[in-house]
């Protein structure tokens, strides 16, 4: 149905797992990619198959940005923690920018993630 990236900062990982569990029937038909730790948790806590990239601080956000630039992603769910500074903030900003440049749907909170999945996939 599409290729979707799933990313979450540490404080948002439980929310992403709940989201993925709720939308598992829909997401099962997708080609899913995630950053390292998020992907590991998704594999352990859901029945979804997920291609894992590096963790965000080790270049995972940039790897996903590369897929956006190569027109290989249909959307991204990136549940960010807006209350904590991230050591790899420049990478996060680059990912957000490349989504805007290539007009790729990007959800950064639970409400927009639900709209993205329902709009793209259901």
Question: How would you sum up this structure in a few lines?
Answer:
With 122 residues, the chain is an alpha/beta fold.
Structure overview:
By secondary structure, this protein is an alpha/beta fold. 48% of the residues lie in helices and 16% in strands. The protein has helices spanning 13-22, 24-27, 36-45, 60-69, 89-101, 110-121; strands at residues 3-8, 31-34, 50-52, 75-79, 106-107. A five-stranded parallel sheet has the order 3-2-1-4-5, sandwiched between helices. β4 (75-79), α5 and β5 form a beta-alpha-beta unit. It starts with a strand and ends with a helix.
Radius of gyration: 13 Å
Mean pLDDT: 92
Helix content: 40-55%
H-E order: EHHEHEHEHEH
Shape: globular
Largest sheet: 5 strands, parallel
Total number of strands: 5
From the N-terminal CA to the C-terminal CA, the straight-line distance is: 9 Å
- Strand order of the biggest β-sheet: 3-2-1-4-5
Report low-confidence residues grouped into runs of 5 or more. Answer: none
Secondary-structure-based class equals alpha/beta
């Amino acid at each position: 149905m599409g290729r979707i990236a799933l990313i979450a900062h540490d404080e948002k990982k439980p929310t992403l797992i709940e989201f993925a569990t709720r939308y598992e029937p829909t997401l099962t038909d997708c080609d899913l990619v995630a950053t390292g730790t998020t992907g590991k948790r998704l594999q352990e806590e859901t029945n979804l198959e997920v291609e894992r990239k590096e963790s965000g601080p080790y270049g995972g956000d940039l790897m996903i940005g590369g897929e956006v630039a190569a027109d290989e992603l249909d959307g991204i769910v990136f549940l960010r923690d807006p209350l904590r500074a991230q050591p790899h903030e420049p990478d996060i900003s680059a990912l957000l920018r490349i989504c805007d440049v290539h007009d790729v749907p990007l959800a950064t909170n639970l409400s927009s993630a639900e709209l993205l999945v329902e709009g793209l996939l259901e």
